[in-house]
Amino acid sequence: MTNAGTTVILIRHAERFDVAPGDNDPHLSAAGQSRARLLVHVLNQANISAIYTSEFVRTQETAQPVADALGVSPVEGIDALQIKKDILLNHSGETVLVVGHTDTVPDVIQLLGDDSHKIDKDEFDNMFLATVLGENKVRVTRLKYGDPS
Q1: Sign of CA dihedral 100, 19, 16, 68
Q2: Inter-axis angle of helices 80-90 and 104-112, to 10 degrees?
Q3: Residue-wise pLDDT tens digits, 52-86
Q4: Of 40, 60, 99, 134, whose CA is between 20 and 30 Å from 127?
């Protein structure tokens, strides 16, 4: 790892349509699509070298506008531990984006070395900036973006 640290930007997917019975993979709602497009403005200058999403369409739809704007192909469907390992092995000293869920975003942050962050089921406007400075040494800043949720 370089002395500059590795920056991991973590967000939960944007707002989704209400889950219909039997549908555990809903698309983004209009509000969610708007929030996803806003990420292009927020992250366009962040020098993101990699994007990680879950296998669920709502994380992929949240990441896609940024991925398209930056020309980065998202890595889909790997678990929190594998995300941590891949970031530290292949993107040390770089900036990466992780789009996850109320459980997986805190899981990745915890694996990086900070277990103090939780996300409520109705929160879609959190953005965590985790600066990894060494093994289990991370500084996390919690921000908000877009309309409050």
Answers
A1: positive
A2: 50
A3: 999 999 999 999 999 999 999 999 988 999 999 99
A4: 134
Q: What percent of the chain has pLDDT over 90?
A: 87
pLDDT in tens, 24-38: 899 999 999 999 999
Question: Do you know the residue count of the chain?
Answer: 149
At 75 the three-state DSSP class reads strand
What pTM does this model have? 0.94
Could you tell me if residue 20 is inside a domain?
A: no
For the beta sheet containing 95-100, the strands, ordered from the edge strand earlier in sequence to the opposite edge, are 75-76, 48-53, 95-100, 6-12, 126-134, 137-144
In a domain, 1, yes or no: no
Residue 100 contacts residue 127 (beta carbons within 8 Å): no
Q: Which CATH number is 31's domain given?
A: 3.40.50.1240
| Number of domains making up the chain | 1
Q: Are the C-beta atoms of residues 10 and 39 closer than 8 Å to each other?
A: no
